Amino acid sequence: MESPFIEVAQADAIAPGKFIRVEVDRTPYLIARVDERYYAVEDNCSHEDYPLSYGCLDGARIKCSLHGSRFDLETGQPADEPADTPIRTYRVELADGRLWLDPSGPLNQR
Ligand code: FES
């Protein structure tokens, strides 16, 4: 079976505490780095379909810049109102200094 992982970036392109936006098949994802861990989530707030990449990281959460909800990068769960629905999270792996995203399906359920 073919691997579902797609190379999306050089790992050193993301400094600790930063994220980048990537597109796979016209779907945007946010790849974040917290210390030495990498996370992949959809680049879309579950509250009003707004790009999360306009926001900022708050530890291991991404904060939406429109109404301020923060989402856990691991679980996708919102920590604050007004969002009440998780964002989708995806597998991302580091190999040979590159980051590989599995866009075939989210890790979590909405
Ligand atoms: S659009 Fe993100 S919190 Fe409202």
Descriptive terms for the model:
6-stranded antiparallel beta sheet, mainly beta, Rieske Iron-sulfur Protein, binds FE2/S2 (inorganic) cluster, 110 residues
Description:
The chain has 110 residues and is an all-beta fold. It has a single domain (6-102), classed as Rieske [2Fe-2S] iron-sulphur domain (Rieske Iron-sulfur Protein), CATH 2.102.10.10. The chain contains no helices and 9 strands. A 6-stranded antiparallel sheet has the order 1-9-8-4-3-2, with no helix packed on it. A 3-stranded antiparallel sheet has the order 5-6-7, with no helix packed on it. A hairpin with a 2-residue loop joins strand 8 and strand 9 (98-102). It binds FE2/S2 (inorganic) cluster (FES). The site of FE2/S2 (inorganic) cluster has 10 residues, from loops.
Chart the SSEs and their pairings.
Elements: E1 6-10, E2 19-24, E3 27-34, E4 37-42, E5 56-58, E6 61-63, E7 70-72, E8 89-95, E9 98-102
Antiparallel strand pairs: 1-9, 2-3, 3-4, 4-8, 5-6, 6-7, 8-9
The chain binds FE2/S2 (inorganic) cluster (FES).
Report the CATH topology name: Rieske Iron-sulfur Protein
If you compute it from the alpha carbons, what radius of gyration comes out, rounded to the nearest whole angstrom? 13 Å
Number of domains: 1
- The tally of beta strands, per DSSP, is 9
Looking at this structure, what is the CATH superfamily?
Answer: Rieske [2Fe-2S] iron-sulphur domain
Strand content: 35-45%
The set of bound ligands, ions and cofactors reads: FE2/S2 (inorganic) cluster
Supply the CATH class. Answer: Mainly Beta
Placed side by side, the strands forming the largest sheet appear as 1-9-8-4-3-2
Distance between the termini: 27 Å
Helicity range: under 10%
State the order of secondary-structure elements, H for helix, E for strand: EEEEEEEEE
- The low-confidence runs, each spanning 5 or more residues with pLDDT under 50, are none
How would a textbook summarize the main sheet? 6 strands, antiparallel
CATH-level-2 architecture: 3-layer Sandwich
Number of helices: 0
